[in-house]
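--- STAGE predict ---
source: upstream dedup step, 1 unique chain passed
mode: sequence only
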Amino acid sequence: MSPRKTIVAPSILACDFSRLGAEVERADAAGADWIHCDVMDGHLVDNISFGPAFVEAASRHTRLPLDVHLMIERPDIYVPRFADVAASITCHVEAAHDVSKTLLAIRDSDCLAGLAVSPPTPLESIRPHLGHFDILLIMTVNPGFGGQPFLPEMMEKVSAAADWRARDALDFHIEVDGGINRATAAVSLASGANVLVAGTSVFKAADIVAEIVALREGTPR
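--- STAGE serialize ---
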């Protein structure tokens, strides 16, 4: 399998919400590939972020694909509310839903289907769904809040997922989210990831263009 393009997806959870449009435009102009949208409901994770109206508002300021990450207890109910603006929708294997049906519903809505796994959950939990998702999101922090430190032990999951993908000739992105900066991006890419969700390191960077380039190239400081 040929090397996959590295995709940098700035997370708007870390942007200035009072300047949402300008912040999305800034990430777009700086060379981002996707815009990542972390939707939290206060149930699956201990935080509340934003919902469909906020994501739709962000969509008006870019033509980049919106990568919607549903950190919510019932993603199956909410998929239709994001499908019109999202390019990809990711649900959690830990949530209270029929994972297979939700992944199928996402694909039926003409979006890429993603499946996320949190740090305490064994990677084996996603094995029954191999072949039914387009993105595997491996959380590299415990989900809920931005700015947390990267968990290096999650690279074992990334490497294992990359091995499964190669062994079974599967076609899916491996995405990492949480504590991604220049150094941890390099480690993640070396382990087999190709989609980097970066919030604080991008939106708080002194030079956002240089930061995105360094992340994509896997260039540590």
